[in-house]
Amino acid sequence: MLTRRLVAALLTAVTAGTALAGCTSGSQESRCSDKNGIIQCAPDQRSKAPALAGDLLTGGRYDVAQDRGKVVVVNFWGSWCAPCRAEADDLEATYQATKASGVTFLGINVQDSKDKALAFEEGRITYPSLFDPASRLALALDIPPNTIPATVVLDREGRTATVIRAAVTREELRPIVEKIAAEEPASR
Known about the structure:
This protein is of the alpha+beta class. It contains 6 helices and 9 strands.
């Protein structure tokens, strides 16, 4: 019961924070376009994503900073989430289709037990997942995902380019990822 109350409180805080942030003229989300839950930011409107680092489900540590120079697709998921199960094959297919062009994927498992999360991943996905049962990493983003599942695409400079606040299909995700992967890096 306490866990459900904590989850409800976290989701309420995220929703309220996002609503307030959206009213602020300087917020990243207010500078980006939102079409049907897909928020896309032009390169000159992107802000640097926060540190995304932690313990991997399978052991070891991961820090998204190690993949600077690559497009990083970050998917927030839970084993308890039916839409997460539905999109898993599409995420893996998009990962396989785009990894040769400098794209990597990272899952972030939230509000879950490690055993259930590992069982969910087995045979479904080949990219790594961080274990974040308290959803702290989602709360750190300038444009919080607000839903599970959610997918955030970081450009090669580690900036938030796209946030998708719903389950995604390969037909929706792949063109977004390929477009960001084809962008020229900003001149230094």
